[in-house]
Amino acid sequence: MPVDTIRAMLSPLHVTFIAGTSGPWRIDRINAVIGESLAAADALTVIEGNDPAADAGTAWMLRGFTSNTRYTTRLETASLTARQQGLGRPASTRAALIPIRKSEAWWTLAQDERREIFEAQSKHIEIGQEYLPGIARRLHHCRDLGGDFDFLTWFEFAPGDDSAFEMLLERLRQSPEWNYVEREVDIRLTRA
Amino acid sequence: MPVDTIRAMLSPLHVTFIAGTSGPWRIDRINAVIGESLAAADALTVIEGNDPAADAGTAWMLRGFTSNTRYTTRLETASLTARQQGLGRPASTRAALIPIRKSEAWWTLAQDERREIFEAQSKHIEIGQEYLPGIARRLHHCRDLGGDFDFLTWFEFAPGDDSAFEMLLERLRQSPEWNYVEREVDIRLTRA
Q1: pLDDT of amino acid A10
Q2: Cβ A166 vs Cβ A186: under 8 Å
Q3: Contact B144 A146 (CB under 8 A)
Q4: Half-sphere exposure of residue A23, counting CA atoms within 13 Å on the CB side?
Q5: DSSP A92-128
Q6: Nearest residue on chain B to A71, alpha-carbon basis
Q7: In 3D, which of B59, B46, B57, B49 has the Cα closest to residue B17?
Q8: B143 and A12 in contact by Cβ < 8 A?
Q9: Beta-ladder partners of B179
Q10: What is the Cα–Cα distance from A133 to A157, expressed in whole angstroms?
Q11: From the candidates A111, A141, A145, A150, which should be mutated to test the interface with B, based on the most B CB atoms within 10 A?
Q12: What's the burial of B156, exposed, middle or buried (CB within 10 Å: 0-12/13-18/19+)?
């Protein structure tokens, strides 16, 4: 199991995504998929651990935290951890940051209802697993911090997986779970 | 359904518990149940919504947030919301604040394993429901904020329910779930 997976499981990691004029990831494009977009910016910096403040060059800043799994069963966890790899692989020069907000209808569902839509109907875990280990992923929660989004998902992959990544997103966006997504922004990046 | 239950479901409410020299709740006693205690203090203030700062009189401060349910099924939710009442009932002059930290062994369990221990083995929801509507309860999460605890549970009840409350705690503390509790402090209060 990758070290950052173990660390994410063992203690929440606070992560801040800062869009501005410079940073290790060049922002190639920002598309509003559902609802309002985010402001244009040239580059993104990902800060782990502390809570940095905005400066004059900051276009926007999104904060979230890794946490314990909320839907994944032991069998699914075993299968995922056997296949997945960590962030920061040298060949992973592409990245995507996808902030999402789900509707109040989603959040008022009970745990068993959310799990039913998330996996039995939408196969969210199963679909994601098909793209491992090529497309690495780290989920950050942010609904409990307030703000405009509920989740910030960060993906990293090699340029050869560009079309696989498009397919992954298309399949998830066609799933019943996406009926509960009321805002989604798709930010694509290349390692500078 | 009580208004504060609906509000808690619809959007996370940030809550800060401030122990100090004065406040609307008199602290009657602070007992360490498992692990280290908290410092003695005379009174407690509960602040909803914003993030107050400590002042010279502050003995300790604990922050958490209400959130969506993590284990409760639709059937259980329906049954709970039919019986439970909100905080702030005039007759509820007794309160308890019980901060808890669970072990790494708990947090590395998958969702289905935690649910199995929490309800199938320990009947956490079922036991709590037996004491409704007398003993009102609001759960605050704080593991994802860092700090020393994972949960802060706040209870309110009338003096006539004192012994029922002791029984509720005793039954939960004897359950298999409590094998995963590595710190628990029991703070008892009376409305000043």
Answers
A1: 60
A2: no
A3: no
A4: 22
A5: --EEEEEEEEE-HHHHTS-HHHHHIIIIIIT-HHHHH
A6: B111
A7: B46
A8: yes
A9: none
A10: 9
A11: A111
A12: buried
Q: Give helix then strand counts, H and E, for chain A.
A: 6, 8
Determine the residue among B65, B144, B152, B182 to mutate to test chain A binding: the one whose Cβ has the most chain A Cβ atoms within 10 Å: B144
- A23: region left, alpha or beta (phi > 0 left; psi from -120 to 50 alpha): left
User: What phi, psi does B147 have (nearest 5°)?
Assistant: 95, -170
Locate tokens 């922050």: which residue?
A: B63
Question: Count of CB atoms within 10 A of residue A178's CB?
Answer: 17
Angstroms from A140 CA to nearest CA on chain B:
11
Residues 6+ away with beta carbon under 8 Å from A33: A173, A184, A185, A186
Task: Tell me the β-bridge partners of B152.
Answer: B99, B140
DSSP A176: G
pLDDT in tens, A86-108: 999 999 999 999 999 999 999 99
Q: Residue B143: list chain A partners with CB under 8 A.
A: 12, 67-68
What tokens does A185 get? 């922004």
B34 burial class (0-12, 13-18, 19+ CB within 10 angstroms)?
middle
pTM of the model: 0.92
| Spatial contact of B19 and B41, defined as CB atoms under 8 Å apart | yes
Nearest C-alpha neighbor of A102 from the set A191, A175, A164:
A175
The dihedral of CA B170, B171, B177, B179: what is its sign?
positive
What is d(CA B97, CA B91) in angstroms, rounded to the nearest whole number?
18
- How far is residue A54's CA from residue A45's CA, in Å, rounded to a whole number? 12
Inter-chain residue contact B9 with A108, CB threshold 8 Å = yes
Write the ipTM. Answer: 0.88
List pLDDT tens digits, range A47-68: 999 788 888 899 999 999 999 9
Measured between alpha carbons, how far is B79 from B86 in angstroms, rounded to an integer?
A: 15
